[in-house]
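Write out the 3D structure for:
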Amino acid sequence: MDYEALLTRGKDLLPDEVAEGGRFEIPKVRGHLQGSKTVVNNWMEIAKALDRPPQHLLKYVQKALATPGEIIKQSVLFGSKVSSSKLNEKIEQYADELVFCKECGKPETQINKDDGVLYMSCQACGAKYPAKARI
């Protein structure tokens, strides 16, 4: 067999999810305004996609937007009106700082605390470095 035939055969044998090479996507915020407050209904879904505790993500977004917020069941209630575009921007910022690996760019990272310092360790490439964001 020639190289091209082997390449085609190898690609045909790959599972669909690998063959597609799907890009990691953060779910967009779904919610509504409730008076002068903002309710985000899919907070747990977003935190699960990022593989981070919902409270950790909330703390970061609260600090970035300078607004109070609390988790109520599966939702988050922010104490002020916040646009979905602003929330999505802050969640993407969180992902850039505390989810995606600085070395390989993959989202398979974990946050660990060592001697009071937050460290990110990548499960894909093995990199370990201090997390920049202070929460």
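Residues 24-99 form a domain with the Defensin A-like fold (CATH 3.30.30.170).
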